[in-house]
Design goal:
The chain is built from one helix and five strands, in the order βαββββ. The chain is mostly beta strands and 85 residues long. The protein has a single domain (2-84), classed as Hypothetical protein (Archaeosine Trna-guanine Transglycosylase, Chain: A, domain 4, Roll), CATH 2.30.130.30. It has a five-stranded mixed sheet with strand order 1-3-4-5-2. β3 and β4 (48-63) form a beta hairpin. It is globular.
């Protein structure tokens, strides 16, 4: 399954280079290990997409309700498969 998600453009380079190998999200989509994230760059100042895109695989999930993570949220370990910045 592929999930298309808005991602603040300021984080895109860190995700692409592996400096930020995780995503923290509200788990309203039933994220699972093995799912694909299609992260689309978003400029929150002008409220529009930037055209930057990263495709990443979910390699690990830590579900909320434990370890200081709010219930309903999750922290996903990700591995970048492809990107266009």
């Amino acid at each position: 399954m592929t999930h298309t998600l808005k991602t603040f453009d300021e984080f895109m380079m860190d995700i692409a280079t592996g400096k930020k190998p995780f995503e923290v999200r509200f788990n309203d989509r039933g994220f699972l290990k093995g799912h694909t994230l299609l992260l689309e760059g978003w400029d929150n100042k002008v409220k529009e997409y930037t055209g930057n895109v990263i495709e990443a695989e979910v390699t690990y999930i830590l579900y909320g309700g434990q370890f200081g993570i709010d219930k309903g949220f999750c922290v996903m370990g990700i591995k970048v498969k492809n990107y266009n910045l």
